[in-house]
Amino acid sequence: MTPQQKADACTAAWNSKDPSQVAGHFTPDAAIVINRGDPHAGTSALEAMAAGFHAEFPDLHLTRDGVRAGGDHMVYLWTLEGHHAETGNHCRVGGWEEWDLDDAMQVTASRGWFDAEDYQRQVDGG
């Protein structure tokens, strides 16, 4: 599997609205840290994290914007788009994840980033 194929498969998992498909791209002991927050570690926490995004944006659609890879490290650039469940506001937020990968192209660690202030502004409708 190429890095582009991995990113496309992960994008499809998010767009499936099935949190277990998202978690399936990670090793069982993997963790994701978003914007230096608390880690979501292990399969159940990763599923809960994905389910939270899907609950917040019932029509969530993720787009792969780009990929950079070298050895067992990969950067996945994405755009999340959808309507916020509580406010109904349309949001479009770009971000990226830095992945460490094992030999089977499973994510062993992820550090995710997006502009939290812009995200909140869009949720609030400002």
Question: In a nutshell, what does this entry contain?
Answer:
The protein has helices at residues 3-15, 19-23, 43-56, 116-124, and strands at residues 26-34, 40-41, 61-70, 73-83, 90-101, 107-114.
List the helices and strands and how they pair.
Elements: H1 3-15, H2 19-23, E1 26-34, E2 40-41, H3 43-56, E3 61-70, E4 73-83, E5 90-101, E6 107-114, H4 116-124
Parallel strand pairs: 1-6
Antiparallel strand pairs: 1-2, 3-4, 4-5, 5-6
Name the features.
126 residues, 4 helices
For the termini, the CA-CA separation is 41 Å
Q: If you average the pLDDT, what whole number results?
A: 96
Helix content: 25-40%
Based on DSSP secondary structure assignment, what is the total number of beta strands? 6
The rough form would be described as: globular
* Largest pleated sheet: 6 strands, mixed
Report on the structure:
- By secondary structure, this protein is of the alpha+beta class.
- Helix content is 33%, strand content 41%.
- It has four helices and six strands.
- The protein has helices at 3-15, 19-23, 43-56, 116-124, and strands at 26-34, 40-41, 61-70, 73-83, 90-101, 107-114.
- It has a six-stranded mixed β-sheet with strand order 2-1-6-5-4-3.
- Strand 1 (26-34) and strand 2 form a beta hairpin.
- It is globular and about 45 Å long.
- The termini are far apart.
- The model has no long low-confidence stretch (mean pLDDT 96).
